[in-house]
Input
Amino acid sequence: MVRWKNSFYVQKTPASENLPWTVIVEAPINPHFSSLQNLYIKSLALVLLIAVIALILANLVSSWLARPIWKLAEVTTDVPEKLVSQKVSDWQRTNPIIWPTSWVTEINALVENFKVMASTLEQKFQEIKNSKEQLEQRVQERTRELSAANRELRAQVSERQRVAEALQQSEALSRAQAQKLEKALHELQLTQTQLIQTEKMSSLGQLVAGVAHEINNPVNFIYGNIIHAKDYTQDLLKLVQAYQQQYPHPTPTIQAQIEAMELDFITEDLVKLLDSMQVGVQRIHDIVKSLRNFSRLDEAEMKEVDIHEGIDSTLMILKSRLQAPSPDKGRKHPGIKVIKEYGELPLVECYPGKLNQVFMNILVNAIDAIASGLFAVTNANDALEQLKVEGLEDNIQPINLQPATPWIRIRTDVVEDNWVVIRIADNGIGITEELSSKMFDPFFTTKLVGQGTGLGLSISYQIVVERHGGKLECISKPQQGAEFIIKIPRQQSSLLPRLNPVESSE
Ligand SMILES: Nc1ncnc2c1ncn2[C@@H]1O[C@H](COP(=O)(O)OP(=O)(O)OP(=O)(O)O)[C@@H](O)[C@H]1O
Ligand SMILES: [Mg+2]
Output
């Protein structure tokens, strides 16, 4: 202000167009300053007054305009919640909506819109309430239906459970019956096999025993008397010699008779003849003994016996099958070599006749297996010969077709103190693992119809396992023979209760 008070008004004007001079006029501000200041203050005060009045008016107008809007806001604040609540009618009764009014048309229109919206909302809420009630009613009905269905279902389930239990029971019953039937069938099969085998063996036994018995008496007679016959002959020959010494010149008749009968030859040959007769009778005697031993018809009871005797007598019975067959029979094997590797066996308590049946079955099978092996080799050789004739032998792989010397090896031993083991092995055709698992089944046979019944091993198994409480196993591989291992306890007395009463009464 003070600076302005001391200021000047300055005006610069060029003096003439032709002259480069400027006219400068300066006038001080000070004499005009106070009137200017007053004018300025008055204008400012007026502007301020107008602004204050404008503010007050604006405030009044805005509150006048906003009041119905505030009221509308207040009225509509809780409407949706209250309308949603179940007690909407009560609420309406206690808190009627007082809609605001205004001179402003737009606000009135807004209020009207809110009124419409509220009534629509109310209507919608009512509809929702109605449908909710309907829904609840339907839910209740459905729940009732469902619980009824549930009850029915439970009843059905328990009924089914009862039926299932009954079914299970009847199934178990029929299974038990089926098992019983199966067992009975199995027993029947076994009994049948036993009957057939027993019949077979008893026929063989009876035949053997009959023959043995018939031969036994005359053989015993000859066997018993041949010694005396030899003695008497010796005596008579000595007498003849004494006569010859005493009467060196017999009568011509006697001399002619001596020459005719070749007395010197008879004297020499008669002793040999009697010796060979004694050997022959001894042999018949041994055979008869073996036959009797094998049949053991008189021995259904358990007995302590020498197992080796049983094996030997069985081998004796099978002697003809073990020997080389006569050439006219067409078979070529040189006889089956029987290798006996007997151990020191004590007497074994067993059913000797039954055990002999087992030896018989296993040895016959071994002979058959060897024969089949030889037959296969012969066939292969024949086929090879045929290929050679046809000039085709180059097409085949060379194989060893030399038949091995057939043998059966019998080993006996005592193991684990109280067990006797008899191993019967052969170098026959052998059998596959798959088939060997069935070989103890009744009626299982790989032999041709009429050549095998398939009972031998099942009966043997029954005799060894069930009657003697032992074990019977087979180890075999195709083309590599088979070995049967019979294991029986040395003492049977403890196993007596195992005895099958039907069997024991045989
Ligand atoms: N040593 C063996 N080597 C090879 N296979 C054998 C031998 N022993 C038995 N088998 C097989 O076991 C099968 C059953 O033998 P099993 O003695 O029970 O009946 P089978 O000899 O056929 O008839 P059978 O009633 O006349 O004895 C035989 O057919 C044979 O296939
Ligand atoms: Mg057999």
